[in-house]
Design a protein that fits this description.
The complex is a heterodimer of chains A (201) and B (95). Chain A is mainly alpha-helical and 201 residues long. Helix content of chain A is 82%, strand content 0%. Chain B folds into 2 domains: 10-64; 65-95. The termini of chain B are far apart. The chains are: A mainly alpha (201), B mainly alpha (95). The interface between A and B is large, with 41 and 43 residues.
Chain lengths: 201, 95
């Protein structure tokens, strides 16, 4: 039993993660195309509906997510340098930022629900076709994005526990790089969601 | 096997600079869409978003330091996306 050889292929693992990321890009890409077409067909309604969204909340969440990407990237640098403690702190910082993002999202959606703006509400159904489409896409796309944030959080908790029990080291850290890649993908998606929903009014 | 040589370690400083650049670009994109540009607003906002994702892909996701294979795969996926976008729009514009 002493000569158990654990085979590990970091390169293959990373390529696998990238392939998964490509499918994610195309999933959101399809939604972006749907958004573009409907915006192209209902420019005035999209313009009016977008004014309902709070730019400052979107801007704060953008900065939170960009910062969380940087902290997770730094956590990977730390683990490569063998600084496990620093890596733990940076991963925890990322987790906190991700939770803050979700709390903001909760209040943002909550405010919409209070104004009777949610998919299928009586108020929404009285609006024009274009506005219904805008809010439908808004809830679907930011909702799907928030689901990705939750999955990212779970991944980071796994990373944290592996840093804690010392199974992640300076030369066995592919899980952290892959989690980072996933987290940066979530960041890129938000980079496009922010201008399309909050900025262009 | 020297695993250190296989992986380029990016410094904290680089990530910090990229983060500051990304935040600056975000604030600039907010500023530029406040100016009345009419139909160019969408284009301006998307150009800023594209520049930001380039930085995220190249630095945070290490495409700059990785093997060319990753860059080529990413390029292929973006080309595929633009091809689908283009074909879909041609369909809608000509209806």
């Amino acid at each position: 039993m002493t000569d158990i050889h654990l085979h590990r292929d970091d390169e293959a693992s990373k390529i696998g993660m990238w392939l998964f990321i490509f499918t994610e890009l195309l999933l959101f890409g399809g939604l972006f195309i749907a958004y573009s077409i409907y915006r192209f067909k209902n420019p005035v309604a999209f313009h009016m509906a977008a004014e309902e969204l709070d730019l400052s909340v979107g801007l704060i969440n953008t900065i939170i997510l960009l910062t969380s990407s940087a902290t997770l990237a730094m956590a990977y640098t730390a683990v490569q340098l063998g600084k496990i403690g620093t890596s733990k702190i940076l991963t925890s910082a990322t987790i906190i930022l991700a939770i803050v993002f979700l709390i903001n999202k909760y209040f943002e959606w909550g405010a919409k629900f209070e104004h009777n703006l949610y998919p299928g509400s009586d108020y929404l159904m009285e609006l024009s076709q274009g506005e219904i489409l805008f809010f439908g896409l808004y809830f679907a796309m930011t909702g799907l994005h928030a689901l990705h944030i939750i999955i990212g959080l779970i991944l980071m908790f796994v990373v944290l526990s592996r840093l804690q029990n010392k199974t992640m080291t300076s030369d066995n850290n592919q899980l952290l790089e892959n989690s980072g890649l996933y987290w940066h993908l979530v960041d890129i998606i938000w980079i496009f969601l922010f201008p399309l929903f909050y900025l262009i009014t | 096997m020297s695993s250190e040589e296989k992986h380029h370690i990016v410094s904290y400083k680089t990530y910090l600079f990229i983060l500051l650049g990304l935040i600056t670009l975000t604030l600039l994109s907010v500023g530029i869409t406040n100016i009345e540009l009419r139909e160019y607003t969408v284009a301006a906002a998307l150009i800023f978003a594209a520049i930001k994702s380039y930085f995220v892909l190249y630095y945070f996701m290490h495409l700059k330091y990785d093997k060319p294979l990753y860059r080529r795969m990413a390029m292929f996926v973006f080309l595929l996306f633009f091809a689908v976008l283009f074909v879909t729009f041609i369909d809608y514009v000509n209806r």
